[in-house]
Design goal:
With 296 residues, the chain is mostly helical. It has helices spanning 8-16, 20-33, 40-52, 56-59, 62-69, 90-95, 117-129, 133-146, 152-164, 168-174, 180-193, 200-213, 223-240, 244-252, 255-263, 271-285, 291-295. It has 17 helices and no strands. Residues 79-107 are annotated as: Disordered.
Length: 296
Protein backbone atom coordinates (compact mmCIF):
# COMPACT_ATOMS: atom_id res chain seq x y z
CA UNK A 1 0.00 0.00 0.00
CA UNK A 2 2.84 2.41 0.82
CA UNK A 3 4.83 1.44 -2.27
CA UNK A 4 1.82 1.99 -4.53
CA UNK A 5 1.95 5.70 -3.71
CA UNK A 6 5.65 6.02 -4.58
CA UNK A 7 5.11 7.90 -7.87
CA UNK A 8 4.92 7.08 -11.60
CA UNK A 9 7.84 4.64 -11.68
CA UNK A 10 6.55 2.73 -8.66
CA UNK A 11 3.08 2.49 -10.20
CA UNK A 12 4.56 1.31 -13.50
CA UNK A 13 6.58 -1.47 -11.83
CA UNK A 14 3.61 -2.66 -9.77
CA UNK A 15 1.25 -2.64 -12.76
CA UNK A 16 3.77 -4.76 -14.68
CA UNK A 17 4.28 -7.22 -11.82
CA UNK A 18 2.88 -10.54 -13.05
CA UNK A 19 -0.15 -11.62 -11.02
CA UNK A 20 -0.16 -8.74 -8.52
CA UNK A 21 -3.30 -6.92 -9.69
CA UNK A 22 -5.06 -10.25 -10.35
CA UNK A 23 -4.30 -11.37 -6.78
CA UNK A 24 -5.62 -8.14 -5.26
CA UNK A 25 -8.87 -8.40 -7.24
CA UNK A 26 -9.20 -12.10 -6.38
CA UNK A 27 -8.80 -11.37 -2.66
CA UNK A 28 -11.44 -8.63 -2.66
CA UNK A 29 -13.88 -10.83 -4.59
CA UNK A 30 -13.45 -13.44 -1.87
CA UNK A 31 -14.18 -11.10 1.03
CA UNK A 32 -17.24 -9.69 -0.73
CA UNK A 33 -18.49 -13.23 -1.38
CA UNK A 34 -17.90 -14.06 2.30
CA UNK A 35 -19.78 -10.91 3.39
CA UNK A 36 -16.66 -9.42 4.97
CA UNK A 37 -16.35 -6.01 3.25
CA UNK A 38 -14.87 -4.44 6.39
CA UNK A 39 -11.83 -6.69 6.39
CA UNK A 40 -8.61 -4.65 6.96
CA UNK A 41 -6.74 -6.46 4.18
CA UNK A 42 -9.57 -5.59 1.79
CA UNK A 43 -9.03 -1.94 2.69
CA UNK A 44 -5.34 -2.34 1.88
CA UNK A 45 -6.07 -4.05 -1.45
CA UNK A 46 -8.53 -1.36 -2.52
CA UNK A 47 -6.12 1.41 -1.53
CA UNK A 48 -3.40 -0.22 -3.67
CA UNK A 49 -5.76 -0.49 -6.66
CA UNK A 50 -6.83 3.12 -6.06
CA UNK A 51 -3.20 4.25 -6.28
CA UNK A 52 -2.47 2.08 -9.33
CA UNK A 53 -5.43 3.61 -11.16
CA UNK A 54 -4.03 7.14 -10.68
CA UNK A 55 -3.02 8.79 -13.99
CA UNK A 56 -3.79 5.46 -15.66
CA UNK A 57 -4.90 6.88 -18.99
CA UNK A 58 -1.73 8.97 -19.31
CA UNK A 59 0.70 6.32 -18.08
CA UNK A 60 -0.58 3.27 -20.00
CA UNK A 61 1.69 1.99 -22.77
CA UNK A 62 0.73 3.27 -26.21
CA UNK A 63 0.07 -0.30 -27.35
CA UNK A 64 -3.03 -0.42 -25.13
CA UNK A 65 -4.34 2.80 -26.63
CA UNK A 66 -4.10 1.42 -30.15
CA UNK A 67 -5.16 -2.18 -29.60
CA UNK A 68 -7.96 -1.70 -27.08
CA UNK A 69 -9.61 1.59 -27.96
CA UNK A 70 -9.06 3.36 -31.23
CA UNK A 71 -6.70 3.81 -34.13
CA UNK A 72 -5.10 7.23 -34.28
CA UNK A 73 -4.87 7.51 -38.03
CA UNK A 74 -6.75 10.37 -39.72
CA UNK A 75 -6.72 12.34 -36.47
CA UNK A 76 -5.88 16.05 -37.02
CA UNK A 77 -2.58 17.02 -35.42
CA UNK A 78 -3.51 20.60 -34.47
CA UNK A 79 -4.36 21.66 -30.89
CA UNK A 80 -2.19 18.93 -29.40
CA UNK A 81 -2.47 17.74 -25.84
CA UNK A 82 -0.41 14.95 -24.30
CA UNK A 83 -2.01 11.72 -23.15
CA UNK A 84 -1.67 8.00 -23.50
CA UNK A 85 -4.20 7.90 -26.30
CA UNK A 86 -1.96 10.05 -28.45
CA UNK A 87 -2.38 13.62 -29.63
CA UNK A 88 -5.88 14.58 -30.61
CA UNK A 89 -7.73 17.78 -31.33
CA UNK A 90 -10.19 19.08 -28.79
CA UNK A 91 -13.03 18.55 -31.28
CA UNK A 92 -12.08 14.88 -31.57
CA UNK A 93 -12.02 14.58 -27.78
CA UNK A 94 -15.50 16.03 -27.55
CA UNK A 95 -16.77 13.45 -30.04
CA UNK A 96 -15.19 10.51 -28.27
CA UNK A 97 -18.24 10.08 -26.09
CA UNK A 98 -20.03 8.78 -29.17
CA UNK A 99 -17.31 6.38 -30.35
CA UNK A 100 -18.43 2.79 -29.80
CA UNK A 101 -15.79 0.86 -27.87
CA UNK A 102 -14.80 -2.73 -28.59
CA UNK A 103 -16.23 -5.34 -26.27
CA UNK A 104 -14.08 -5.74 -23.18
CA UNK A 105 -12.25 -8.99 -22.54
CA UNK A 106 -14.18 -11.63 -20.66
CA UNK A 107 -11.13 -12.69 -18.71
CA UNK A 108 -8.91 -9.62 -18.17
CA UNK A 109 -5.39 -9.98 -16.81
CA UNK A 110 -3.07 -7.59 -15.03
CA UNK A 111 -3.41 -3.93 -15.88
CA UNK A 112 -6.48 -4.65 -18.08
CA UNK A 113 -8.40 -5.42 -14.88
CA UNK A 114 -8.00 -1.85 -13.61
CA UNK A 115 -10.69 -0.46 -15.93
CA UNK A 116 -12.70 -3.65 -16.47
CA UNK A 117 -16.39 -3.67 -15.53
CA UNK A 118 -15.75 -6.50 -13.04
CA UNK A 119 -13.58 -4.26 -10.87
CA UNK A 120 -15.92 -1.29 -11.35
CA UNK A 121 -18.75 -3.40 -9.93
CA UNK A 122 -16.49 -4.49 -7.05
CA UNK A 123 -15.84 -0.85 -6.15
CA UNK A 124 -19.55 -0.08 -6.24
CA UNK A 125 -20.27 -3.12 -4.10
CA UNK A 126 -17.74 -2.00 -1.49
CA UNK A 127 -19.17 1.52 -1.53
CA UNK A 128 -22.58 0.04 -0.78
CA UNK A 129 -21.56 -2.61 1.75
CA UNK A 130 -18.42 -1.50 3.59
CA UNK A 131 -18.57 0.78 6.62
CA UNK A 132 -14.81 1.44 6.69
CA UNK A 133 -14.22 5.04 5.65
CA UNK A 134 -10.86 4.30 4.03
CA UNK A 135 -12.39 1.48 1.97
CA UNK A 136 -15.26 3.72 0.88
CA UNK A 137 -12.92 6.59 0.04
CA UNK A 138 -10.49 4.36 -1.89
CA UNK A 139 -13.31 2.75 -3.90
CA UNK A 140 -14.75 6.15 -4.78
CA UNK A 141 -11.25 7.47 -5.47
CA UNK A 142 -10.43 4.62 -7.86
CA UNK A 143 -13.59 5.38 -9.85
CA UNK A 144 -12.70 9.08 -9.72
CA UNK A 145 -9.25 8.29 -11.18
CA UNK A 146 -10.72 6.11 -13.91
CA UNK A 147 -13.21 8.80 -15.00
CA UNK A 148 -10.78 11.72 -14.81
CA UNK A 149 -9.35 11.74 -18.34
CA UNK A 150 -10.70 12.81 -21.72
CA UNK A 151 -10.14 9.68 -23.78
CA UNK A 152 -12.56 6.85 -24.48
CA UNK A 153 -11.61 4.85 -21.37
CA UNK A 154 -12.96 7.41 -18.83
CA UNK A 155 -16.20 7.77 -20.78
CA UNK A 156 -16.60 4.01 -21.02
CA UNK A 157 -16.05 3.65 -17.27
CA UNK A 158 -18.55 6.46 -16.63
CA UNK A 159 -21.19 4.71 -18.72
CA UNK A 160 -20.57 1.47 -16.85
CA UNK A 161 -20.93 3.20 -13.47
CA UNK A 162 -24.12 5.08 -14.34
CA UNK A 163 -26.00 2.90 -16.83
CA UNK A 164 -24.69 -0.67 -16.75
CA UNK A 165 -23.91 -1.11 -13.04
CA UNK A 166 -26.53 1.31 -11.63
CA UNK A 167 -23.93 2.87 -9.36
CA UNK A 168 -25.56 6.25 -8.69
CA UNK A 169 -27.69 5.16 -5.68
CA UNK A 170 -24.59 3.93 -3.83
CA UNK A 171 -22.63 7.07 -4.69
CA UNK A 172 -25.57 9.24 -3.64
CA UNK A 173 -25.56 7.60 -0.19
CA UNK A 174 -21.91 8.67 0.23
CA UNK A 175 -22.95 12.32 -0.10
CA UNK A 176 -24.62 12.05 3.28
CA UNK A 177 -21.90 10.35 5.33
CA UNK A 178 -20.29 12.34 8.13
CA UNK A 179 -16.71 11.65 7.04
CA UNK A 180 -15.65 14.77 5.06
CA UNK A 181 -13.02 13.04 2.88
CA UNK A 182 -15.50 10.37 1.75
CA UNK A 183 -18.06 13.04 0.88
CA UNK A 184 -15.45 15.11 -0.98
CA UNK A 185 -14.35 12.11 -3.08
CA UNK A 186 -17.95 11.16 -3.88
CA UNK A 187 -18.60 14.69 -5.14
CA UNK A 188 -15.39 14.66 -7.19
CA UNK A 189 -16.48 11.41 -8.83
CA UNK A 190 -19.89 12.87 -9.67
CA UNK A 191 -18.18 15.92 -11.14
CA UNK A 192 -16.21 13.64 -13.49
CA UNK A 193 -19.32 11.65 -14.41
CA UNK A 194 -21.30 14.84 -15.10
CA UNK A 195 -18.90 15.83 -17.90
CA UNK A 196 -20.38 13.06 -20.03
CA UNK A 197 -23.33 14.70 -21.77
CA UNK A 198 -25.07 11.40 -22.50
CA UNK A 199 -25.30 10.68 -18.76
CA UNK A 200 -26.36 14.10 -17.49
CA UNK A 201 -30.11 13.49 -17.43
CA UNK A 202 -29.63 10.26 -15.43
CA UNK A 203 -27.28 11.96 -12.98
CA UNK A 204 -29.54 14.98 -12.53
CA UNK A 205 -32.57 12.80 -11.87
CA UNK A 206 -30.72 10.63 -9.34
CA UNK A 207 -28.49 13.02 -7.41
CA UNK A 208 -29.10 16.70 -8.22
CA UNK A 209 -31.42 17.30 -5.23
CA UNK A 210 -28.91 15.52 -2.98
CA UNK A 211 -26.07 17.71 -4.23
CA UNK A 212 -28.13 20.78 -3.39
CA UNK A 213 -29.01 19.40 0.04
CA UNK A 214 -25.35 18.96 1.06
CA UNK A 215 -24.34 22.49 0.09
CA UNK A 216 -23.27 24.11 3.38
CA UNK A 217 -25.55 26.72 4.93
CA UNK A 218 -24.23 28.85 6.53
CA UNK A 219 -20.81 28.50 4.92
CA UNK A 220 -18.06 27.18 7.21
CA UNK A 221 -14.42 27.86 6.42
CA UNK A 222 -12.50 24.56 6.38
CA UNK A 223 -10.42 23.73 3.30
CA UNK A 224 -12.06 20.36 2.67
CA UNK A 225 -15.57 21.86 2.87
CA UNK A 226 -14.47 24.59 0.47
CA UNK A 227 -13.13 22.00 -2.01
CA UNK A 228 -16.31 19.94 -1.73
CA UNK A 229 -18.56 22.96 -2.18
CA UNK A 230 -16.63 24.11 -5.27
CA UNK A 231 -16.92 20.61 -6.77
CA UNK A 232 -20.67 20.54 -6.10
CA UNK A 233 -21.06 23.89 -7.89
CA UNK A 234 -19.07 22.73 -10.91
CA UNK A 235 -21.06 19.47 -11.03
CA UNK A 236 -24.31 21.45 -10.97
CA UNK A 237 -22.84 23.69 -13.68
CA UNK A 238 -22.20 20.66 -15.90
CA UNK A 239 -25.70 19.32 -15.30
CA UNK A 240 -27.55 22.60 -15.91
CA UNK A 241 -25.43 24.38 -18.52
CA UNK A 242 -27.26 22.89 -21.50
CA UNK A 243 -30.48 21.80 -19.80
CA UNK A 244 -33.24 24.17 -18.81
CA UNK A 245 -35.04 21.15 -17.33
CA UNK A 246 -32.15 20.43 -14.96
CA UNK A 247 -31.88 24.10 -14.06
CA UNK A 248 -35.55 24.03 -13.09
CA UNK A 249 -34.86 20.91 -11.04
CA UNK A 250 -32.16 22.82 -9.17
CA UNK A 251 -34.63 25.64 -8.61
CA UNK A 252 -37.31 23.32 -7.22
CA UNK A 253 -34.73 21.82 -4.83
CA UNK A 254 -34.29 25.32 -3.32
CA UNK A 255 -30.75 25.48 -4.62
CA UNK A 256 -30.69 29.13 -5.66
CA UNK A 257 -30.57 30.74 -2.16
CA UNK A 258 -27.76 28.39 -1.12
CA UNK A 259 -25.72 29.08 -4.24
CA UNK A 260 -26.18 32.83 -3.81
CA UNK A 261 -25.01 32.54 -0.18
CA UNK A 262 -21.89 30.65 -1.27
CA UNK A 263 -21.15 33.14 -4.06
CA UNK A 264 -21.32 36.08 -1.64
CA UNK A 265 -18.83 34.61 0.84
CA UNK A 266 -15.73 36.74 0.30
CA UNK A 267 -13.45 35.07 2.85
CA UNK A 268 -10.05 34.06 1.47
CA UNK A 269 -10.55 30.47 2.67
CA UNK A 270 -13.74 30.10 0.67
CA UNK A 271 -12.81 32.08 -2.45
CA UNK A 272 -12.58 28.96 -4.64
CA UNK A 273 -16.12 27.90 -3.74
CA UNK A 274 -17.37 31.46 -4.12
CA UNK A 275 -15.98 31.68 -7.65
CA UNK A 276 -17.49 28.32 -8.57
CA UNK A 277 -20.90 29.43 -7.28
CA UNK A 278 -20.65 32.66 -9.27
CA UNK A 279 -19.84 30.74 -12.46
CA UNK A 280 -22.87 28.54 -11.80
CA UNK A 281 -25.16 31.55 -11.24
CA UNK A 282 -23.94 33.17 -14.44
CA UNK A 283 -24.69 29.96 -16.33
CA UNK A 284 -28.13 29.57 -14.75
CA UNK A 285 -29.06 33.09 -15.87
CA UNK A 286 -28.47 32.06 -19.50
CA UNK A 287 -31.75 30.09 -19.33
CA UNK A 288 -33.93 33.07 -20.20
CA UNK A 289 -37.13 31.03 -19.90
CA UNK A 290 -36.47 30.73 -16.15
CA UNK A 291 -35.90 34.41 -15.40
CA UNK A 292 -39.34 34.98 -13.93
CA UNK A 293 -39.01 31.86 -11.78
CA UNK A 294 -35.60 33.02 -10.57
CA UNK A 295 -36.96 36.41 -9.61
CA UNK A 296 -39.80 34.84 -7.62
Amino acid sequence: RNMSSAGPEGRKKMRECDGLIDSLVYYIQGTIADHEPNDKATENCVCILHNLSYQLEIELPESYAQSIYMQRRNIPSNDKTPGCFGTRSRKVKEKQQDIPLPEEKGNPRGVESLWHSTLIRIYLSLIAKSTRNYTQEASLGALQNLTAGTGPMPFAVARTVVQKANGLPSIRTMLHVSHPAVKKTAVSLLRNLSRNTSLQSDIAREVLPDLVSVLPEPVPGSDIVCETTASICYTLYNLTQSSSHNARLLLSADGLPKIITVSMNDSSTFSKASRAASVLLYSLWSHTDLHSAYKK
